[in-house]
Design brief:
With about 300 residues, this protein is of the alpha/beta class. It is built from ten helices and twelve strands. Helix 7 runs antiparallel to helix 8.
Length: about 300
């Protein structure tokens, strides 16, 4: 798959515009429809997307946590069958374009001769509401604007916003069903206080590689961790503030800690991927580290029950 960041109209393309955060089942349904239209019309199946979420510019305080990093999003788009990803920087110039100006830019600069307009998909500063208006503008500019059918398949209704709500409610199973793949958090392992090692549960302390990544609801999860050797291993993960072991300085500082079952290895400064599978329990403060150790043993037993086929 090619990533296009500058004007390129050498190929004639059919595209759909969107953020594609998560590249979930609804996105894949739209892409399948786009690919069928591309084959019928002899055009290159493409998407137009943005390097950052538009709300990061328009209303930064309302910008959502993201389900995928840019690298992951591009990878999933390629796996779904997209041949060209047109990657735009969402800036004030694009923000204030009308629908006509945006369509004209896509046609002239990127060779887009047909555009799939997904269900409830709108663009342009003027926010046209009627699909026929987009069609009429497209006809004048030489772009065939096509309406895509609504997705009614597995886990419907599906949207990136709905999936984020699942994660924030501690429902990774629902999120993963809607995504069609596990929600994963990629991060670098950093030094912690190493207390877990002293009670028999060493942890890898994770700092996300993308600060915009959404962090699931606090608590303990059964999970998988993909280690630097590419092996997917069972794990339990704590998202929270470690109330039993944090000192005054540590309280209030969110941590993401993964205990990888039956794993011995040096992970500091290495990148790992955590796949959240099942919410086990809320985080709680235990009276003693002995009580904490007993609970961690029970959590580990539940994490061991995960099927390696879980996706």
């Amino acid at each position: 798959m090619d990533i296009i960041t500058k004007s390129n109209s050498d190929s004639r393309r059919i595209a759909a515009v969107g953020m594609y955060d998560g590249v979930h089942l609804g996105h894949r349904f739209l892409i399948d429809y786009l690919r069928a239209e591309a084959k019928a019309r002899g055009l290159v199946p493409s998407v137009v997307t943005f390097s950052r979420h538009p709300l990061a510019l328009v209303r930064p305080l309302e910008a959502p946590g993201l389900l995928t990093t840019l690298e992951e999003r591009v990878k999933y788009l390629g796996e779904a069958g997209i041949e060209d990803t047109i990657l735009l920087s969402f800036n004030d110039r694009i923000r204030y374009m009308s629908a006509r100006e945006f369509l004209s830019m896509l046609h002239k600069k990127f060779g887009i001769d047909a555009l799939i307009l997904g269900f409830n998909n709108r663009f342009g500063h003027d926010r046209l509401e009627d699909f026929s208006q987009y069609q009429a503008i497209g006809k004048e500019l030489g772009i065939d604007v096509i309406s895509a059918p609504e997705y009614h398949g597995t886990a419907a209704p599906v949207s990136s916003s709905i999936i984020r709500r699942y994660l924030l409610k501690g429902e990774p199973e629902k999120a993963n069903d809607a995504l069609g793949h596990p929600y994963s958090l990629r991060g670098v392992v950093v030094n912690g206080n190493r207390l877990g090692r002293t009670i028999g549960f060493p942890t890898a302390n994770l700092v996300p590689v993308d600060a915009a990544s959404i962090i699931p609801k606090g608590g303990v999860y059964a999970a998988f961790v993909v280690t630097p050797d590419g092996v997917r291993r069972k794990a339990m993960v704590n998202v929270g503030f470690r109330p039993t072991v944090s000192d005054a300085d540590g309280l209030g500082k969110l941590s993401i800690e993964a205990h990888i079952l039956d794993y011995v290895g040096y992970l500091y400064d290495e990148e790992i991927v955590v796949e959240f599978v099942k919410y086990l329990r809320p985080e709680k403060k235990f009276a003693t580290t002995t009580k904490l150790k007993e609970q961690l043993a029970a959590d580990a037993a539940k994490a061991r029950e995960l099927s390696t086929e879980t996706r």
